[in-house]
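Hey, quick one: can you model this chain's 3D structure?
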Amino acid sequence: MVGLEDAMQLVDHNTFLEQLAALFESSKDTGSIWITHKRLLRDGEDITITDHDETREFPCILKVTNGSKTKFSTKVSSSELSKFHTAYGSLLKSSMGELRKRDKKREKANAEQAAKRKKRMTEPVTVEGPKRGNGRRKRQRQLKAALKQQESQKKFKEREEARKKAGTVLP
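Sure thing. Here's the predicted structure for all 171 residues.
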């Protein structure tokens, strides 16, 4: 099986920035991009904790993927880091302006509706009115609402118990 590291294409800085710009452009409307920026501790040879001395400089590796077929990376030495970050930062700034903003109004409305549903579920439904004659239909609706509320409370309790069991189970 080929791992992510094996399928990753290592390119030079300029090619990396060009491919990243093209990837931002292609995923402008839909899609996601994952960018990983790490310090590269080893470059082929094994390194132990005692090998970490303060004088040795480690390069950084930047990996980019869109989750499917596009995967590429570049290795930046510490001496080239400031120059690379200038170009990389300007590319990110120009590309981030095209991102969609969250619809906070819709999220707030959905949260308010969920709070109302939860409140309605906890408030008791009063069943009043005559069994026969005027107000019979109103009483039937109230009975039906009370049964529906009991059922939803039962389902909620079952879900909470399942969550507690899943949280306490140790692997």
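One thing worth noting: Residues 1-6 have pLDDT under 50 and may be disordered.
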